[in-house]
Amino acid sequence: MLAQALFSYRLTIPHTVMFDEVHYVPAARKLLTLAAPANTEHPLVGKEIIAAGIALFGDNPFGWRAFSTVAGTATVLGVFWILWLMFGRTRTAALGAAFALLNFTIFVEARIAMLDGFMAMFVVLATAMLLWSMRAHTAASAWPRWVAGSVLLGLAVGAKWTAVPFVAYAGAAFLTIRLSEARRADRSVWWALNAGGHLYWPGLAAIPALMTLGIVSVAIYFATFTPAFYYHDMPLSLDRLLWFQGNMYAQQTQVLPSHPYQSQWWSWPLMIRPIWYLYEYVDGATRGVLMIGNPAVLWGGLVAVAACGYLGWRERSLRLLGAAALWAGAYLPWIIIPKSLGFFYYYYLPSVFLPIAIAAALQRVCSGRFARWDESAVLVALGLFAFFYPILSAAPLAGPQSFHRWMWFPTWP
Question: What is the pTM for the complete model shown?
Fold first, then answer.
C-alpha cells in the first residue's frame, strides 16, 4: 500500500509526455485502434499494458502511467518475496523491500510509461515463482509454479528482449542446485536429473522441466504478438512472424548518432552519467525528473554484491551466491550486447536486484555490535530519497538553475 501510494502521488505531473513516452504512448494508441505497426524496435507486451491503461482510464497522463505504478509496486513486493523464499526471514525480506522502495530507479520508472518497468516486474516475479516452485513439497504444487514462472519469463521477453538471458539462467540454476544437492547427498548425476527423492523441485525431472521452461516461455512470447495479426495496414502473418524478429534485431543493433546522455556499460554501476527524463518549465513551474539511483543502494549495492560473492564462495552458500548472481546476470549481458549507444537506464534491471544483495549481505554480517547497522542503512537511504525527491517527482523548483543543488559531480547535469 505504501509503495502504490508513493508511486501514484501526483502521477499526472507532467501533463505532457516526457522522455521515451514520446515513442510508447503513440504506439499504444495505435495498438488500441489496430491501425498499423508502430515502434517496431520492441515487442508488444509493454505497449499492450500501456494501451490497457489508456482504454481503462482514458488517453491522459494517468491512463498512460497507471499500470507503471502497479509494475513498480509488484517489483517491490517481488523483491520481498524472493528474499523471504531465499532466507525465510521476514526482517531480511522487509529490509530488501525497503531498499527497493527507496531505490530512485524503481520510483522513476514506476511513474513513466516506458517498457523497462514491465520487463523488470515480470523478471522479478518469475524469479520468485520459480523459487516458490523450488520450495514446493509435492510435484502437484511444484509443476504449476514452474509453468507459471515460465509464463512470466515469456511475458518479460515480450516486454523487452533484455529478459532473454533469464530463461537460460533459470535452466542453469535448476541444474546447478540439483547437482549441488546430489553432491551433498553423495548421489549420482543420474539421480540429480531424475524426479524422485529431491528436496528441491520434487517430482520434476530435469529434461521435462527444462523443455517445459523453453517451450512455454517461447510460446507465450509469440502469443503476445496476436494483436499484430489484426492490423488494418501491414498485418503480421505466421510466415512473417520470424521475419519480424529479425527486423527488431536489426533496428536494435543499428548504428545511431551520438547522444548527449549516452554512456558506456562500465560507467552505469558508478552512476557517472544519469539522464534527465524531464527538465523544463511545464505545468506552471520548472520541473525535473532525473533517472538516477539512490547512492546508498547503487554504490552500497556494489559492496553488497562483492560481499555476497566472497562469503557465498567461502561458505559454499548458494543463497549468498544467488543474491550476487541475480545482479551479475542482469548486468553482464550488456557487455556483449551489440548496441551502438548505451544509456544509464539500461542499468534498470540490475539496479532492481541490488536491494536483494544488500539485504542478503546485511543479514549475514549484522550481528553482535553491528546488529542495528541494517536499520541505519535504511535510514540513510530514506534521507537520500527525501533529499532527491524534488528532482525525482517533477516537483516545482525555484527556477531554471535549481538543479545545481543536487549535482554532486560535473558529469551529472
Answer: 0.94
